Amino acid sequence: MTIKDVARLAGVSITTVSQILNKKGDRFSPETRQKVLAVVKELDYKADYFAQNMVSKQTKTIGMVVPDITDLFFSKVIEGVEKHLNELGFMIILCNSNHSSEKENLYIEELLHRSVEGIILASPNPIHLPKLKNEDGSNKIPHILIDRGINKRDEGQLITNEFQGAYEAVEHLVNLGHREIGMLSNETSFYEITDRFYGYKKCLEDYQIPFQEEWIVSKNLTIKGGYEGAQQLLQQNITALFCGNDQMAIGAYRAINEAGKQIPKDISVIGYDGLEITDYLVPSLTTVAQPIFEIGYFAAKFLIDHINNPKEKVPNKYFDTQLVLKNSTKKLDSF
Amino acid sequence: MTIKDVARLAGVSITTVSQILNKKGDRFSPETRQKVLAVVKELDYKADYFAQNMVSKQTKTIGMVVPDITDLFFSKVIEGVEKHLNELGFMIILCNSNHSSEKENLYIEELLHRSVEGIILASPNPIHLPKLKNEDGSNKIPHILIDRGINKRDEGQLITNEFQGAYEAVEHLVNLGHREIGMLSNETSFYEITDRFYGYKKCLEDYQIPFQEEWIVSKNLTIKGGYEGAQQLLQQNITALFCGNDQMAIGAYRAINEAGKQIPKDISVIGYDGLEITDYLVPSLTTVAQPIFEIGYFAAKFLIDHINNPKEKVPNKYFDTQLVLKNSTKKLDSF
Questions:
Q1: Count of domains in chain B?
Q2: pLDDT-derived band of residue B329, with 50, 70 and 90 as boundaries?
Q3: Do B223 and A276 touch (CB under 8 A)?
Q4: How far is CA B124 from CA A222, B98, B107, in A?
Q5: Are residues A155 and A75 in the same domain?
Q6: Ramachandran sector of residue A319 (left: φ over 0; alpha: ψ -120 to 50; beta: rest)
Q7: B307: exposed, middle or buried (C-beta count within 10 Å: 0-12, 13-18, 19+)?
Q8: Where is the HTH lacI-type domain (chains A, B) (predicted)?
Q9: Is residue B330 part of a domain?
Q10: Confidence of residue A190 (pLDDT cuts 50, 70, 90)
């Protein structure tokens, strides 16, 4: 049973049926409206999305672009996004950009073409805003960025206090007597990694520990990246390692083991994110936890609120981190 | 610029525009067609999906339901699905069922309502096929199940040879001299886990090792499930452990360490799936690899082929496993 059948039986056009069902049929006569509604009732017709939305444009669909769906951080963000959308009857068209700016753009274009009501874009890249903005600076489509602040804007920021999180992690190491502290950072210009890096650097500075260029290695934020980065860093005389994220720390564990060293006896390690898996590593990983699920949840909430109230400013939201002490750090013997 | 503008300027109905753009406008006069196409050209109008598809019903969208998007197995399956769909310009509406049959059903209903062209349903549950089938047994909508065979059917099966995979894993342990071999299984009635269990059992039988009920513990197929299950199994005098999946093995590693035992010195461990992370565990995990990405890829391929050729039978596809030897197993000292 389609809208075509309803239109045919009521002797009106599809547009007429659509507008009446969407309560935009004021311009039609009461007779026409009654005729259409009677057929709808008789056929037990439930408008499908295409018919229903051709006029109202309420597709109850949002697009979401992430760099990698198999990344434990982003899959947790998606879970948070879905939690809120699901409660409201919205669905997600999910797109995997594979960390490519070009693919992000293609997906955004395709999503615009598909009349999604809004877009959540999680990206490690500076985003080509022209795809999302009109020439006059207004939004082409409501959108929220999960970019940790890399794209400057004064509303709709969802930002974890990364500087503070990193600072506390490194300070913890310093308080345990470590002065040779390496960092696994990221080779792209991620703002958040930059912020984690600044937290690291500022802490060393505050404790008058000279900063050493060779204590920083930049790699992908993956297990493999952490493994390769740690192999390189272990050439240096470091007694502690602050990792750009938990996945890097998992790779670092392996590299440290292969180098014949033990955690935390020979080297202390701290991760970042607070993934569940860190509880199960041997030893369990001390990590800077951030509320990943909540970041997704609020991205969805702010987007839907913005769709419903397009004239109101989108709020900013700042999330705090928490240093979760487990078993991968140890007081330096000589301290 | 919407289809309404085109219709208004051409002086025809929206349906007329839609049908002409979808090359279903044979019944209109050449003049009408030319008028519409001229306006379309003038406005540089690209039909949006709702207008374009109201008639053709080609939404180029498929729905996909998975039990848990943060599960490393399912996120890899999604990656495979997207790889194929992406090449063809299809997009995915992704739904997270949270392992709930009820939620699966709600999502399927919602997807049907949204005119997706097909559904991929990854589920650990016997599926309520009435949602997907008409009363006469025909399909309500093209669909592919990634259920590892739990729902019986004679076409569209995507099945890994789990029995063989499990058998080879256990045989490897037996060949290393192990006779006290525990298994971390799953508490639901997963067919594949059952098949893995049968492979385990048959191998013991073939090597005349008496099967012991208390060597089997059933838990969730998660890191936490593996941790709890292994804690329980370590009460038994086992020298080797076959895990229902790699994620369980990660949890088992932790439990074994807490029990003061070393892998593989005191206990040999084998996982199942072949996740990338198994290379980085300490020690690296011997595992039964299955082609997870390919399973997703073929699910998408078979679905699209079926959408395009609805009268042809959907093929079955069987995937082989491969025992990947790493460093978590060892010949029994006494052997």
A1: 3
A2: very high
A3: yes
A4: 29, 11, 15
A5: yes
A6: beta
A7: middle
A8: 1-56
A9: no
A10: low
- Same-domain status, A19 and A118: no
Give the helix ranges, DSSP H, for A88-221.
Answer: 101-113, 162-175, 191-206
Q: Residues of B with CB below 8 A from A82's CB?
A: 69, 94-96
Provide CB contacts within 8 A for A260, sequence distance 6+.
none
Both B218 and B109 in one domain: the answer is no
A82–B96 CB contact, under 8 Å: yes
> What is the three-class DSSP state of B322?
strand
Cβ separation A70–B53 shorter than 8 A: no
pLDDT score of A224 more than 60: yes
Q: What is the pLDDT of residues A95-149, one digit of tens each?
A: 999 888 888 888 998 898 888 999 999 986 677 667 788 778 788 899 999 987 7
Is A27 an interface residue toward B (CB < 8 Å)?
no
Q: Per-residue pLDDT for B176 more than 90?
A: yes
Residue B213 DSSP symbol: G
Q: Answer whether A95 touches B (CB < 8 Å).
A: yes
Q: What is the per-residue pLDDT for B158?
A: 92
Kindly state whether A280 is in contact with chain B, defined as any CB-CB distance less than 8 angstroms: yes
Give the gap in angstroms from C-alpha B300 to the nearest C-alpha of chain A: 15
The CA distance from B211 to the nearest CA of chain A, in Å, is 30
> Which pLDDT belongs to residue B48?
58
Identity of residue A186: N
Local confidence band at B37 (pLDDT 50, 70, 90 cut-offs)? confident
- My answer on whether A196 and A242 are in the same domain is yes
Confidence check: pLDDT of A282 > 70: yes
Least confident of A201-210, A262-271, B57-66, B186-195: B186-195
Tokens linked to B292: 């997870």
Q: Could you say which DSSP state residue B214 is in?
A: G
Task: Assign residue B190 the CATH number of its domain.
Answer: 3.40.50.2300
Q: Chain A: give the shortest CA distance to residue B154, in Å.
A: 30
**Residue B334 in domain:** no
What is the pLDDT at residue B192? 46
| CB < 8 Å to A250, chain B | 277, 280
- Choose the closest CB to A93 out of B3, B13, B92: B92
Average pLDDT, chain A: 89
Ranking A254-258, B114-118, B151-155, B243-247 by mean pLDDT, the lowest is B151-155
In a domain, B333, yes or no: no
pLDDT at A270 > cutoff 70: yes
Quick check: B277 and A46 CB within 8 A? no
**Residue B1 burial (CB < 10 Å; 0-12/13-18/19+)?**
exposed
In chain B, residues 240-279 whose CB comes closer than 8 Å to chain A: 250-251, 253-254, 257, 276-277
Task: Let me know whether B166 and B269 are in one domain.
Answer: yes
In a domain, A331, yes or no: no
| The predicted structure's pLDDT at residue B191 | 43
Spatial distance between the Cα atoms of A147 and A97, rounded to a whole number of angstroms: 14
Residues B106 and B26 in one domain: no
B75–chain A Cβ distance below 8 A for any pair:
yes
| Contact by Cβ (8 Å): A13, B15 | yes
Contact criterion met (CB < 8 Å) for A51 and B54: yes
Of the two residues A134 and A68, the one the predictor is more confident about is A68
Q: Do B110 and A93 touch (CB under 8 A)?
A: no
Q: Do B93 and A92 touch (CB under 8 A)?
A: yes
Q: How many CB pairs under 8 A join A and B?
A: 135
Q: Provide the CA B109 distance to its chain's centre, in angstroms.
A: 20
Q: Which domain holds residue A152?
A: 61-159+292-319
Q: Which among B48, B277, B281 has the least Cβ separation from residue A115?
A: B48
A297, A273: one domain? no
Same domain, yes or no: A212 and A275? yes
Which chain A residue is nearest to residue B224, measuring alpha carbons? Answer: A280
Cβ B50 vs Cβ B114: under 8 Å: no
* CATH code of A28's domain: 1.10.260.40
